[in-house]
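Trying the structure run again after the queue cleared.
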Amino acid sequence: MDMSQYVKISPKTSIHMLPDKKYEIIVEFNAKQRLEEFVEKIFYEVHDYALPLCVVKGSYVAPEFSLDKNMLTFANVVLGCHRDMYILLQNTGDLKGRFKWVVDRNDQFEIHPMDGVIMPKTVMKICITYRPKVMQCQLILKSKCIINGVTHLPLAIVANSVNWPNPAEHLTFFCPIRTETSQTVTLYNNTKVTWNLKPILTGEEFIIPDEIMIPAETNYLLHISYVPRAMNSPHKKLHKETLKVENWLNRQQTFTVKTELISTPTIKSIYRVTGKEVIALPPNATKKYNWNIYVVNEEPLKFRVTFTNPDTKEYLCYEISLKLLPSGPLDAIYIETCLRELKKVTIKLENPINIPVTFFNECRLPDILYKKVVTIPPHSTHNLELCYFPIKVDNSRWNFEVKSDELGMFIYSLNVKANPPLVEKVVRFETELGEKSFASVSLRNNFTVPVELNGKFENPAFLLESSTAILPGEEGRYMFCFEPFELGITKCKAVLSSPMTGDFIYPLTGECTPPKPKGPYTIRSGGMIAVNFTNPFLETKEFHFTCDNKDFLLRNNEEEIRGRKSTNIIGDNE
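Done. Tokens:
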């Protein structure tokens, strides 16, 4: 290392030393940047002999801090969950530093540690946690790490959150009260990093590991246990209880089965019990009896199920208490189609009671057509038809609600997906340069109000010649015009749209050929004629006019014509 730029020795000139005299040599060290520890020798020269004078040791220490990243991105974090990301705070200098994070006010981010001391030549891992509380397309947080009150290291945090995805799988558990049953779900980690997962459960009756670690590119069998402390069942869904029936005699017994409602009935106590009416058991045998019940409304019910031997009048009974929970969606209905393509599905409605029931149907999705009111006779069914006719691209979920005074509410999850419209047939044009060609398309208005469409074109060679409103239930025609400005094949996509109907997409193909001679034009002797000429180009051009016969005279031999504009060429017959 060349130390001459940091170490200066004075005096710089030669010294004449007298006997028994001392002279002062000044060594000055002045560094402008960090220097590692160095050792240098200083020599003096007498009569061409160089001898060591002294040894100089030194170093220049300074602070130096940095972050390995200046931006963090949290992408698609699920609402209610959290994600941890890490950055490195590096002290590559020679002095320790006391740091503190300053963050914009936001309760969805956490930084740990928020403050501390970092020693020289060390690296500290800083954890940033994002816990979204509301759905946001983009959230930008500005923060900085202040070290020793002087050094400011900025860090930008960008995040967005998404809602819970649709369930990948539905698990159904059935077991007697105070017993345990379990099922497994396979989790796939197809990434290159290890997953550390914390499952979230909303039901107290379920047992699941608190933490799960899935190594990279492996599968994991997650065991979910269900231990119910009380019997419960959603209303409007079939519920099954397994009852153990035992024959305590050394001979065969036959039992009749009877179900009684022992809780106080109300006008909404509508249910249906199914199961075998008679059960036969061999001597000293035990059988499982499946007791099924379908309850319409949400209310607590208590039943007594009695197994009676009609000969001996001996009996065995169970008391079953049911807590009916809200059923939620009874079924998930998926409908997928393209814009303005009708798709139909049906929902089976049932009236299980002895009087006619009127159902009132409701869905907030305007693209679904259905009967608003349906009356079903006693003990009958009806297939309610839903017609999906979308007018805009969509991918959403809606509730379809069926209500009645007697049977309560039935909810169906309606998942609709409307893809972009199918492309219409190709519309073809053929004309020569300087001329126009026209073609029309017909559209039918299936809406209840008049509609008028506007046209958009990718190429200025095409335009919409006419646009008129189409009355409900009628058919209208829209005229396309092809006015080319170059020879050859020209292709374009035309989009006719309105807020009511959505987009109609038409592929347009036009062929432009060289212009052909016009005429003939007849001029009497001494007369004149005006020949119309159009500039077919988009920009202003200068045109020159000539005549190959001296008997005819052109009044204007050249003219500058604006794009797509016309002029008259005046000719005289002398």
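The radius of gyration is 45 Å. Worth checking whether this holds up in the mutant runs.
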